[in-house]
Design a protein that fits this description.
By secondary structure, this protein is an all-alpha fold. It has ten helices and no strands. Helix 5 packs across helix 9. The longest helix has 28 residues. It is globular.
């Protein structure tokens, strides 16, 4: 099942691993493997990718970054196939994402002997890019009867789904809130009218999907594979300029 009904689906450039993710999910439908197992696996794969970066095996690092993106989509697909949505999985997925982003940026900074300031700017840029894409995407999903495990503004811990424990949801929510609250609030205050103006053309969403995590991992993988390691962090710092561009474009569309 897609995260959006057919009428509102768009070409998501960050979701290139969806076909593989669906195959994995359907292959595991009748097994003991749970979405949480897949989430843990993509975390391990992400750590391995960092190991390859640190050992200067950049082609393999790129392969594992793409594999991480595929598995990142597979856990959600498996949850949909098994009809076992959970906030535990949703928060754990996001927590792993931001921790892995930190590790990847620091690994690249280390091998390029870059400055920690550049690493911090690149990391903040990566998070703001992904947050803007997720912000608009979640608005669509909430408004058009798509997947509703994500919320526009995570003010309180949600009520646990059947099959998961509320204490686990509460704990993971607190961790999630610490890690993401600043980025979420920055984007929300930059475009707080977006939830009231739900005109997000498919072409607009396709363009903004270039800021999604999957697109970021693909860009990193390509740059690592073709020997552009030293340009990865500066690129993502500059890439952040698209955030205000897309916000202004969204406002223009809904003027």
């Amino acid at each position: 099942m897609s995260k959006l009904p057919a009428k509102h689906r768009f070409l998501d450039f960050s979701d290139y691993g969806r076909t593989s993710a669906r195959w994995i999910a359907h292959s595991l439908k009748n097994t003991f493997i749970t979405p949480i197992h897949i989430t843990l696996l993509f975390g391990i794969v992400g750590v391995i990718a960092c190991g390859f970066i640190l050992s200067n095996q950049y082609y393999l690092a790129g392969i594992f970054l793409i594999l991480k993106s595929i598995l990142d989509a597979a856990d959600g697909e498996l949850a949909r196939v098994k009809k076992t949505p959970s906030y535990t999985g949703r928060y754990l997925d996001s927590i792993f994402d931001i921790l892995l982003n930190t590790m990847i940026v620091l690994s690249i900074c280390y091998v390029t002997q870059g400055s920690i300031i550049m690493a911090v700017l690149a990391f903040v840029g990566i998070q703001l890019q992904g947050t803007l894409y997720n912000y608009y995407y979640v608005i669509l999903r909430n408004d058009f009867d798509g997947d509703n495990t994500s919320r526009i503004n995570e003010k309180n811990a949600p009520i646990a789904f059947s099959g998961e424990k509320q204490k686990h949801v509460n704990l993971l929510y607190k961790i999630f809130n610490i890690l993401y609250r600043g980025f979420d609030q920055a984007i929300y205050h930059a475009d707080r009218q977006a939830p009231k103006n739900q005109n997000f053309p498919n072409w607009f969403m396709s363009c903004i999907s270039l800021l999604g995590l999957g697109s970021q991992m693909l860009l990193m993988a390509v740059m690592l594979s073709v020997g552009l390691l030293n340009y990865v962090l500066p690129f993502f710092i500059g890439y952040t300029a698209l955030v205000p561009v897309f916000i202004l474009l969204r406002r223009y569309i809904n003027r």
